[in-house]
Design goal:
The structure holds 2 protein chains of 2 kinds. Chain A has 2 domains: 49-279, Beta-Lactamase (2-Layer Sandwich); 366-575, Heat Shock Protein 90 (2-Layer Sandwich), CATH 3.30.565.10. Chain A is 50% helix and 20% strand. Chain A contains 15 helices and 18 strands. In chain A, strands 1, 2, 3, 4, 5 and 6 form a 6-stranded antiparallel sheet that branches. A 5-stranded antiparallel sheet of chain A has the order 8-7-11-10-9, with helices on both faces. In chain A, a hairpin with a 2-residue loop joins β9 (245-251) and β10 (254-262). In chain A, 30% of the residues are buried. By secondary structure, chain B is α/β, with parallel strands linked by helices. Chain B is 47% helix and 17% strand. Chain B has a 6-stranded mixed sheet with strand order 7-6-8-9-10-11, sandwiched between helices. Chain B starts with a helix and ends in a 5-residue tail after the last helix. The chains are: A alpha+beta, B alpha/beta. Chain A binds chain B through residues 151-153, 155, 158-159, 161-163, 191, 206, 223-226, 228-231, 288-289, 292-293, 295-296, 299-300, 303, and chain B through 4, 7-8, 10-12, 14-15, 18, 48-49, 52, 55-56, 248, 251-252, 255, 266, 268-269, 272-273, 293, 303, 308-310, 312-313, 315-316. Chain B: One of its GO terms (molecular function) is carbohydrate binding. Chain B: It comes from Sphaerochaeta halotolerans. Chain B: Residues 1-21 form the signal peptide. Chain B: Keywords: Signal. Chain B: Belongs to the bacterial solute-binding protein 2 family.
């Protein structure tokens, strides 16, 4: 069976609504910020990397320009061989070499490979070895043609193996005959000079700068030894495809930013390689911090949403609690709650409604009480006509018989009876007064029925001043006489006993030896509108029962047991209450 | 309220936790590099390679080596010191194939990763071994040596190694012996060891040549040994000489045709890959098994682009 879905509480709905809206905005703003920041970081990284590469290129250009300046100076000197002695020219060139640690040597060859000028005194290698070297062959081709080699082991002098980068240029020089001839100028630079220019460039923690020539051959690479040992690979192919500019690619599992620039004066290109993961390392930190802040914001948002919704729904819940309380019948607590304007107004309306209900209920209670009093008064009032009729009938009868003493006795008893009946308007009298009332009644009835019955009243000590509603015994006694003893041939007996019965009850027992009742009559005597009741039989008994129950509750009332031709026992059960003072009446 | 504060503190705790983790992961590995001796071009290139790998891995390296290559007790002391200093890994070129077994076992028991560079031990297995194929080198060198002789010309060879009790030297000499057994008229007259002493190598060569004038081929399997042998050979160009190493003196001897060929094992590669392997082992990875390259360089090929880089690598 499909269960009906429970509706969500206001607090849940409010929390959810506030949280969803706030978190959605937070996520949207975070995504925009992240996107902006990452693109800005990437842009900055690209710009700074390009700038570093450009700076290295500029430094290298300064350096090559410097070499070209020296070459120009050497070229000028070479044309002055007819003016200046060779030693003087060599000394001037040597002073340049000596002043610079980066230059290994400077040599001028003729095109046959013979040395014309040299800054080194070391023994030279054979001419055939010189002529075959790349720097020699590549520079030959026309005056002014120059060439930069990549790093290589110098092969000019025996027993010396420095790693150099060679600058070579075909130049004119003045030969011994004073004529201009073609020669080849060589300047060998220590390869570490170029290395230092590149090593100073930091592209992230492991990025680097390298050079390639116009054929895509590596001229200089900081990881040359690793490349030689096959421990490092370089992506020359991509660089050759792009020629110039900036691009990103993934090589051996790492995304790289590659920047290519052209080196002035040399047919080289400078290539800067930076690893994106290093360039974007700041983004990773930013991402981590942002995620934490985001988590913080989300948790805070949920908490705030929960607090706000609790603030809004708390008065409603309080109002609901008060309504439940009122529903259970508790009108005692004031049904007003604080909170926002709407709930406060609702609360005030509810409070007014509860107040009105309370007032109406009080009115109902009062009217009920009044009604009960009216009923009691009416029941009580029913006794008087019976009693008065019967008594006066007896007085008349005795007067007709000239029974003066009897009349006196009866009227005296009647007067006492009425005094107690009046009781200064009170409904509650003492048991002593009640039984005194009955005694006077029995005296009257005994006179009327001319000793047709005898009676006794036995009251347990200490019960005289206990309170009771008045005129509850007399109707029972009256009923016993009229419907029980009255029909007896022999002497009737009517015994009244009053005693306490635990817990908290007082029993007024009226026993007669009248004709009694059958079971059917006994069962219906206390019920209303019984069809078996005739001639007002049992009306007084029922009235007494109803009065006791109306006043003391359903736990009290009459208990009747009876047997035909044997008699009837009526027990009036009333609660034992604190004693009261009897009413002082004037005799 | 307390719960609210606690919930608000969670992200802050996460933040501090993250920063602490980051700091932990940045702690570099400490690696002890214990070579056979302090000097020598071979060991110098190995150390250069290790230093290059240091830049790539961020590991902290400390170099230890006895003065003499034959001082294995000195190496034992250095391994003990590395254990005491709780290095994360040790790169070791054991100068004795049995004497260091105990201390290497002790280091491994202490949780230190041990990588052997160039040579190993007979019994104790390392976590990783990086070496050249000395069997192949021996065969290749022998073939080159034979090329200096005609088919029917008898070859009487003298082999002078450095240390007798290293796995690499044993493999190399064994390979040469095998090659000689396979060629007619070729025999190894004598195998001696110089313990990397130039003087001892010289004296050994002089004595051997004097004792057996038929010797026409000498192998010097280590650079200091080559220097000593070269000094003994200078006046006699009839003897072919093949040496291991790439010192400037050896290169000059190669150019002077005293040495016919130089065998250069890429010890830069050895050092670089040893550190890389150690770091990979520490990171729980398995290093790739790959032999270290070598070159047989002659006077003709010494300036070729291929050989230039390996022959003159220590000049860079």
């Amino acid at each position: 069976m499909k269960r009906k879905k429970q509706p969500y509480s206001i607090m849940t709905l409010l929390t959810f609504a506030i949280a969803v809206v706030s978190i959605s905005f937070t996520l949207l703003i975070s995504a925009i910020l992240y996107s902006q920041f990452s693109s800005r970081i990437k842009e900055n990284a690209t710009v700074s990397t390009r700038e570093i590469v450009r700076q290295v290129n500029a430094n290298l250009s300064y350096y090559t320009n410097d070499i070209l300046t020296i070459a120009t100076y050497a070229r000028d000197l070479a044309k002055q061989t007819n003016i200046l002695p060779r030693e003087e020219i060599e000394n001037r060139l040597r002073s340049i070499v000596d002043s610079r640690q980066d230059i290994v040597c400077l040599v001028l060859f003729d095109l046959g490979g013979e040395t014309l000028l040299s800054t080194s005194d070391a023994p030279r290698r054979p001419t055939e070895e010189i002529l075959g070297q790349t720097w020699f062959t590549r520079a030959i081709g026309g005056e002014g043609n120059f060439y930069f080699t990549g790093p290589h082991v110098q092969q000019l002098f025996t027993s010396s193996y420095p790693w150099v980068i060679t600058y070579s240029q075909q130049i004119s020089y003045t030969n011994k005959q004073g004529e201009l001839s073609q020669g080849l100028l060589l300047i060998d630079m220590n390869s570490w000079a170029v290395s230092e220019l590149c090593q100073s460039a930091k592209l992230g923690s492991s990025g680097y700068v390298y050079f390639i020539d116009n054929n895509g051959k590596i001229v200089y690479h900081p990881y040359q030894q690793l490349i030689n040992s096959n421990l490092f690979n370089e992506d020359i192919e991509s660089v050759q495809e792009h020629i110039f500019g900036t691009f990103t690619n993934t090589f051996e599992g790492r995304e790289r930013l590659v920047i290519i620039d052209t080196v002035n004066n040399a047919r080289w290109r400078i290539v800067g390689v930076a690893y994106m993961d290093e360039l974007m390392a700041g983004l990773d930190q930013y991402t981590t911090v942002m995620l934490i802040i985001l988590a913080f914001c989300i948790i805070t948002t949920i908490l705030i949403a929960r607090t706000v919704s609790a603030y809004i729904s708390r008065p409603i819940k309080e109002l609901e609690r008060l309504m439940n309380s009122v529903e259970r019948g508790d009108f005692s607590s004031p049904p007003t709650v604080g909170g926002n304007q709407e709930v406060a107004a609702l609360s005030q309306t509810f409070a007014a409604m509860v107040q009105r209900i309370r007032q109406l209920m009080d009115d109902i209670v009062k009217s009920q009480e009044m009604k009960r009093k009216f009923e009691l008064d009416a029941l009580q009032a029913k006794i008087n006509p019976h009693f008065l009729y019967n008594t006066l009938d007896s007085v008349v009868w005795m007067a007709e018989q000239n029974d003066t003493s009897g009349v006196i006795t009866m009227v005296t008893a009647l007067a006492r009876l009425f005094r107690i009946s009046i009781s200064k308007g009170r409904d509650i009298i003492t048991l002593g007064e009640e039984l005194e009332h009955v005694r006077n009644y029995l005296i009257i009835q005994q006179i009327r029925y001319r000793d047709k019955f005898q009676f006794s009243i036995d009251m347990e000590p200490g019960v005289e001043n206990l309170p009771t509603i008045k005129l509850i015994v007399q109707p029972i006694v009256e009923n016993a006489i009229y419907h029980g003893i009255k029909y007896l041939q022999e002497m009737g007996h009517l015994d009244i006993k009053v005693f306490k019965k635990k817990p908290g009850a007082v029993i007024i027992e009226i026993r007669d030896n009248g004709v009694g009742m059958d079971e059917q009559r006994l069962n219906t005597i206390l019920t209303m509108s019984s069809p078996s009741q005739k001639n007002g039989e049992g009306i007084g008994v029922r009235n007494v029962h109803q009065r006791i129950q109306l006043y003391y509750g359903s736990d009290y009332g009459l208990e009747i047991s009876s047997e035909l031709d044997m008699g009837t026992l009526v027990r009036l059960v009333i609660p034992e209450q604190d004693p009261i003072q009897p009413i002082k009446v004037a005799h | 309220m307390k719960r609210t504060i606690l919930l608000l503190l969670i992200p802050l705790l996460l933040l501090s936790g993250c920063s602490r983790n980051q700091q932990d992961t940045n702690t570099p590995y400490r690696i002890a590099v214990i070579t056979m001796m302090q000097g020598g071009e071979f060991w110098g290139a190995l150390k250069n390679g290790a230093r290059s790998a240091r830049l790539a891995t961020g590991a902290v390296l400390e170099f230890f080596a006895p003065v003499n290559e034959s001082d294995y007790s000195g190496q034992i002391a250095f391994v003990e010191e590395a254990i005491a200093q709780e290095f994360d890994a040790i790169i070791l070129s054991p100068s004795h194939h049995t004497q260091l077994e105990h201390v290497v076992g002790k280091a491994r028991s202490a949780g230190i990763k041990v990588v052997f560079a160039d040579t190993g031990l007979l019994q104790e297995e390392p976590d990783f071994l990086i070496t050249a194929d000395y069997q192949m080198i021996g065969k290749h060198v022998a073939e080159h040596a034979f090329s200096h002789f005609s088919e029917d010309e008898p070859i009487n060879a003298l082999i002078i190694g450095s240390l007798p009790n290293t796995t690499s030297m044993t493999a190399l000499i064994g390979s040469l012996e095998t090659a000689f057994h396979q060629r007619e008229n070729a025999r190894i007259n004598s195998v001696a060891y110089s313990f990397s002493s130039e003087v001892l190598a010289h004296d050994t060569a002089v004595r051997a040549i004097k004792a057996d004038p038929s010797i026409n081929l000498i192998f010097a399997l280590e650079e200091y040994t080559a220097h000593g042998v070269a000094a003994a050979l200078s006046p006699d160009p009839k003897i072919h000489f093949i040496a291991f190493g790439n010192t400037q003196h050896e290169i000059q001897l190669l150019e002077a045709e005293v040495i016919d060929a130089l065998v250069v094992v890429n010890s830069f590669n050895l050092g670089y890959r040893s550190v890389l392997a150690a770091v990979e082992l520490l990171e729980g990875k398995r290093p790739v098994q790959k032999l270290v390259d070598f070159a047989l360089v002659t006077k003709e090929s010494m300036f070729s682009e291929e050989h230039q880089h390996i022959l003159f690598q220590t000049f860079q």
